[in-house]
Amino acid sequence: MTKKVITTSRKRRLGRELRRLRENAGKTMKDAAELIGVTVATISNMERGVHRVRKAELADLLELYEAPAQTRETLEAMRRDANKRGWWTKYGPALPEWFRPYVDLETDAVTVRHVELELVPGLLQTQEYARAVHLAARHVTPVDMVDRSVAARLERQQRLTDSPPLEVWAILSEGVIRRVVGSAHVMAEQLRHMLTLNELPNVKVQILPYSAGAHCSMAGSFSILDFREYPSAVSVEYPAGGLTLEEDEDIARYSLMFDDLRALALSPAESARMIAAVAQDLEQQGRDAR
């Protein structure tokens, strides 16, 4: 039986930085392999984040690449953390395997920029809204895993009140706040919760109204995660999975898209007024239904 290779966002970022430094230094994988006494395949696996890098190996490679002292300190810290188990591992299969790299990235991020066409971002969801979402997505979350999946989502939200807190900037299509998820009551509570979070200094919500017309992200949602010392990453989800993009050109492209969308969106104050108006309509629907 083939042994399963486990990689983490830290391993991938370490590997990406090693590749970047090697290429900038004009060195080949063969040069690196001969220096530390391994095969070219091992160097390739290190740079893909699927092979552990030992402390002495990292030091020798960074010497070969003539990396600055600060870079050496940063990458050594990354190497030490690369094999740590994430807090989310305790939830087991309640977190789909394809989603774990995103949670790993989110845990280390200092800023997350969301563009969402259908869903309230997980960091801003109420418990009942999250439950309704998981129940609707039976192809992703088995019914017997819903409670644990919701618990994991709520634990992720602790980042919003950490010290320092995670900064979240969410651009939501108007459809996100108008689609009734769960019930009118559940949705109204979700919108009121989002308004409360929007008052935090580290949370900003903007609505992209239908009146904005065609825009650059009509084909799908995405998230950009920024880090204090590491390069940014982009997460793109689809109905049965997701992928992480870490190449410079991808980061630049999605960052430009985000900037275009925030220019099209309502201001945070205008967005809050729209969210409040929709919440009020839903609350009235609930009263009328009694």
UniProtKB/TrEMBL annotation:
Concerning SMART domains, the annotation shows: HTH_XRE
List each copy of the HTH cro/C1-type domain by range. Answer: 18-72
Q: Which PROSITE patterns match?
A: HTH_CROC1
Tell me, what's a Pfam family for it? DUF5753
Q: Which organism is it from?
A: Gandjariella thermophila
Can you name one GO molecular function term for this protein?
DNA binding
Protein name per UniProt:
Transcriptional regulator
